[in-house]
Description:
38% of the residues are buried. The chain has two domains: 12-213, Vaccinia Virus protein VP39 (Rossmann fold, 3-Layer(aba) Sandwich); 224-293, rRNA adenine dimethylase, C-terminal domain (Helicase, Ruva Protein, domain 3), CATH 1.10.8. It is built from twelve helices and nine strands. The protein has helices at residues 12-21, 38-47, 65-73, 87-93, 112-120, 136-145, 159-166, 176-184, 224-234, 242-247, 255-264, 278-293; strands at 34-35, 55-59, 76-80, 100-103, 125-130, 150-158, 185-193, 198-199, 206-213. The protein has 294 residues and is α/β, with parallel strands linked by helices.
Amino acid sequence: MKMKKEDxxxxxxxxxxxxxxxxFRFSKSLGQNFLIDGNVLDQICDGISLGKxxxxxxxxxxIGTLTRELAERAKSVVAIELDKKLLxxxxxxxxxxxxxxxxxxxxxxxDLNKLIxxxxxxxxxxxxxxxxxxxxxxxxxxxxxxxxNLKSIIVMVQKEVAERMTSAPGKxxxxxxxxxxxxxxxxxxxxxxxKNAFIPKPNVDSxxxxxxxxxxxxxxxxxxxxxxxxxxxxxxxxxKTLLNSLSSSDVxxxxxxxxxxxxxxxxxxxxxxxxxxxxxxxxxxxxxYDLKKx
Length: 294
């Protein structure tokens, strides 16, 4: 018997029954944890302000718990699922929804811009994801760096990673990831999700994080690659000063040159990278660029 719209897929009993029906076993290698909290589903959909004209890409639909909520609110949903064993389950749980398309692919290998062009007439779309935690950061950074045509991203991540992505200068969690995410988007934590909101229960608490993508990066830099080299180099040795960290990185200029640039920008030599704003990092990177060019 096919599932109906009124069946609450996030109910532990309903979920357990359907998993038993299809003899599904969770894959540790794929980091599979399925959400069983309906309130969190609402917070995810509310977090990206889904409306009837919105079109959505979902990464990792699992058995379709979030997919159903997205399909109820949005115009259309394209869900990308890697695990072939979940396809017959999705065919069942989404049988009442004619605005959902499932693609069996690895999101790191698929051309998302082409997918948007073919399925959404190249309009800007919203993206939702519940990703395996071991690959969350690479996927998010791939989405941002490849400049996929997205309005916003809402994603479930490890709580610690969410704190790093949203951290401000001077905070313990602030680092190169905070700057990289902040360069492309405005990031905020929507809600904290405890371990017991999932089957099976993960080892850590989670967080739903929303990234509103900027039309242009937050700061203008002369060389993006160098900018990110500088920010990564600044945090390479967290306990060291900015001067010493950059001197031992691959930014390509001497310690004396770095010292001169810091003095020129009125940045103290003994400051640590965690104290600099993204704007200050942009100025620092541009000055290094100018020096290398001359």
